[in-house]
Amino acid sequence: MQKRVGGTGKPKGKRERLGDRSCWHPSCFVCHSCHQPLVDLIYFHQEGKIYCGRHHAELFRPRCAACDQLIFTDECTEAEGRRWHPGHFCCLECDLPLGGQRYVMNGGPCCCSCFESLYAELCQACGELIGVDSEQATHQGRHWHARASCFCCTLCQKPLRGQPVTSHHNLLYCSEACSLEKATGASTASDSSDSAFVSAPSPDSTPVSRASSEGGRSAPGPGSAPPAPAMGGDSCQRRAEAEGTVTREPLSKAGAGGGNRGQGER
């Protein structure tokens, strides 16, 4: 009984065996990729096909993420879906071997010391570095420790982790209500400060003469002699009140803008 060969399906003649069932004509026993004859050569059998050593390696051997060369050894280091030669899995910054060590994947493996000194973010609340052992929350490109004391509402201190976040003037709030209350309070305090500033006369200012509603006197014209000053303290005060006060420009105030809603991310 004739057997069908694995290559063309034609009746076999002189055959090459691969295991107990697969048979080829010598001319059919070639690499699946480059068709190089593999009789008397080293070949690899993968997924029902045979390959020369070169193409089997290119198709099925992993490449080192550091040197981009094929890994032919039986052992390699695998992390984050990539593989390295055992001696190539090192910190990108200081070349410290990281096999069996803690590391941070920041485009490539990085030891904890280099990551904290070069890449760790500053917390917007406390101003301290967010270390590799600390959880981090990010909102609109800024960073906080994810703990309740840092990532919280500016007004009511409610923790914002996993909650809707409103941002106003780079400050975080748990709701629009807190944002508006904070803005209203700041505006009121600014108005009070401005009023006190406007009502206080300047010690260097000169009173401006004006018509008095009580005596019916008109303001002296250019070249006229100024009235004689009063001698008593009370009289000086009454004269200043009658003649007017110089007003300086009030302090500028920050208006309350609208907040942007976002989700606090860790």
From TrEMBL:
Residues 255-266 have a biased composition (Gly residues). It comes from the Eukaryota. Residues 62-121 form the LIM zinc-binding domain. InterPro entries: Pk/Esn/Tes (IPR047120), Znf_LIM (IPR001781). Gene3D superfamilies: Cysteine Rich Protein. SMART domains: LIM (SM00132). Keywords: LIM domain, Metal-binding, Repeat, Zinc. Residues 188-266 are annotated as: Disordered. Signal peptide: none annotated. Pfam families: LIM (PF00412). GO terms for molecular function: metal ion binding. This is Prickle-like protein 1. It comes from Chelonia mydas (Green sea-turtle).
